[in-house]
Amino acid sequence: MFLDNMDSIKDLNLIDEINDSLTIALVNNRLKLLFWNKNPEVSENDDEKEDLNSKQSEETNEEKYLKALRDYQERLSAYALREKSGDSGLLSEKIDYLTLILAANSKNHNIYIKKLAEEYAEKVLLEEGDSRVNIWDFIDVAANSRNNDLHLERMILEGNVVLLSKKRQSIYNFEKIRLKIKNYVDMVRNAEMPKEIKDLLVKKSEEAFDGINIEYNIESGIKLSTKEYSGEIPEDWHPPCMREILNDILSGGSPSHYARRSFVVYRFVSQFDPNLRPIEEGTITNRSAQDIATEEQIERFLDEIINIFKSVGDFDVEKTKYYISHNIGYKVANHITHCEYCKNWRDDGGKGLGYYCRPDPTCSRKDIIHPLDYLCHNINRHVKKSE
Predict the structure, then answer these.
(1) CA torsion angle for 262, 266, 268, 273 (degrees, to 10)?
(2) What span, in angstroms and rounded, lies between the C-alpha atoms of 67 and 275?
(3) Distance CA 241, CA 313 (A)
(4) How far does Cα 327 stand from its chain's mean position?
(5) How crowded is residue 240: how many other Cβ atoms within 10 Å of its Cβ?
(6) Beta-carbon count within 10 A of 304 CB
(7) Would you kindly state where each structural domain of the chain is located, as residue ranges?
(8) pLDDT tens digit string along 294-340?
(9) Cα–Cα distance between 224 and 383 in angstroms, integer?
């Protein structure tokens, strides 16, 4: 994997490289190949064309993919000639590093992590990865992945070795690679740099992603309309825990049941009544989805959330829709389940919430005891500033 060979970028001049049109074209080609849908779905309305035309469509799609691959290889060869380097493999790794840097500075960074992890996990699977894993290596991956299928108590142990079935071996390989890529992307995103360089990276990342079809292009903002505020909610107005869960989901992670539930309910309530809390005046609040939103708004919300959860490995449309409806108190339940209070995130209690609880200075305020308090604080601060 290119992340294991840092020598290929030791002499890299980042500014010169990203200002090079050939380099950006190569990065764009690399991203097109990474995001290519190799198995396009056939429209259900074209039943009569299903046999011949569906096959023809697949062949055409494959031909397009091979053409994109040839374009990439030809550009890479031209790049090698210009750089007077006969090692196209080393230059390919350099392009992979530049792709990661630009993807990390784009709004598509989480989907990039997922796609790249899938690509490398597929290669590992073809090479028949090891089904016997050292217990400490396994715990290191499992503890950080938050994937329910990798709980140690579900594994077969042989001394200090974890024996993995084919299914769990595939999950383990994917999570191991995903976490490694995610770590590098986070390092790039959090790197301190002058504003002009950061702005240049963001601008060049937009060029790199030009013309690329992103399956799950989800904006983390929420549109809100209340007496206090009306408009788009910026990402940094949401608490760190909710941002972390969304980032994990979009990058292919599998948060715990409790984390997913809190995320879904937070997102729903924050959109329609951010002042609603699990306990009001000492009693549990029993409100249903239709108490705070219309059926049309709820159905639209369900579609949006299902689109987000498509990134999760164990995704199932019907099950996801059922559980979301249950959590927000719509049709299959008569009350909102509610997002957990901050105390429960800190204490965790085995619910898988603590991993996402990464307090910032706003979280430390005495009046922030629930994730929605964080959002309301930012809304009120914005309204006051505007006034």
Answers:
(1) 140
(2) 54
(3) 21
(4) 22
(5) 17
(6) 15
(7) 2-208, 222-386
(8) 999 999 999 989 988 887 766 788 889 999 999 999 998 889 988 99
(9) 13
- Specify the DSSP element, H or E, that contains 162: strand 161-163
Pair 277, 382: CB distance under 8 Å: no
Give the C-alpha distances (Å, rounded to integers) separating 165 from 126, 162, 168, 169, 172. 16, 10, 5, 6, 10
> Does residue 124 contact residue 177 with C-beta atoms inside 8 Å?
yes
Q: Which of 171, 98, 102 is nearest to 138 (CA)?
A: 171
Is the Cβ–Cβ distance between 22 and 29 less than 8 Å? no
Whole-structure pTM value: 0.77
Classify 222-386 by CATH class. Answer: mainly alpha
| Residues 325-381: tens digit of each pLDDT | 999 999 988 899 889 999 999 888 778 888 899 999 999 999 999 999 999 999 988
Nearest to 228 by CA among 183, 273, 191: 273
Amino acid at 268: F
For 321-352, the three-class secondary structure string (H helix, E strand, C coil) is: HHHHHHHHCCCCCCCCCCCCCHHHHHHCCCCC
Sequence letter at residue 208: A
Question: Residues 228-268: pLDDT tens digits?
Answer: 778 888 888 999 999 999 989 889 888 888 999 999 999 99
Spell 7-21 as b/e; 16+ CB within 10 A means b.
ebbeeeeeeebbebe
Tokens representing residue 250 in the block: 């979009």
Distances from the Cα of 185 to the Cα of 5, 121, 130, 178, angstroms: 16, 17, 26, 10
With CA atoms as reference, report the closest residue to 242 among 234, 307, 312, 145: 234
Tokens 């770590």 label which residue?
A: 183
Q: Are 24 and 207 in contact (CB under 8 A)?
A: yes
